[in-house]
Amino acid sequence: MTETRFVACPHCQGHLLDDGNVESQVVACPFCDKQFQMPTAEMHAQAFADQPPEGQNAATSKTLTYVGPHATVKPWQVTTVGVLRLSSGILNIVLGLALFVFVLPLALIPLGVLEIVSAANLLSARPRFSESLQKLAIVEICAILTCAGVVPFVVGILALVWLAAPSVKRYIETLDSRVAIATVPLAP
Question: Does the model's pTM come out above 0.85?
C-alpha cells in the first residue's frame, strides 16, 4: 500500500495530494496549468518532508487531488485589474473635483470611490469575489457617456475580459470554499 503524500507544484507551490497512482507521470497543475513530473516515493522522501501543509489533514484519494484553502498564487489578471481600478478611481475623483463646475463629471466621484474600494479588495491577500465586480465593470463602461470617462471605459472592458479567464475562475472557486478539492487531469 502506498502512502498518501503532499507534493508542491514546482511552478506555483500549490499543494497536491498524491496517493501514488501518478508517480513519475507528467501532470498539469490545476492552478497554474503548467506541467511537471510527479516525483517517485523515493525522490519525495529524499527531497521533501512528508507532512501536509499546516492546518490540513491527509486524506486518501484515487486521483491526484489539490487540497488547501486556496491557490497560493493570485492570477496576474486579478492584480492587474486591481491596479488599473485603483489608478482609474484616483483619476476619476481628481477629475470630478477639478471639473465640479460641470454637472456631468460629478458622477465620476462616486465611481472613483467604488473603484478604489474594489481595487483594495482585489489587491488584498484573500479577495472576495461577487457579482458587484461585473456590475462595476459595466458602470465603468457606461462612464464613456461622461466627458472624462475614457479611462474607466477601458478599465471596465479589461475587467470583464480578464476576470472571466479560466485561471481566475478556478482561483475564485478555491476561495469560495474553506477546503477546495480539485482533481488534477493527467497531462497528455
Answer: no
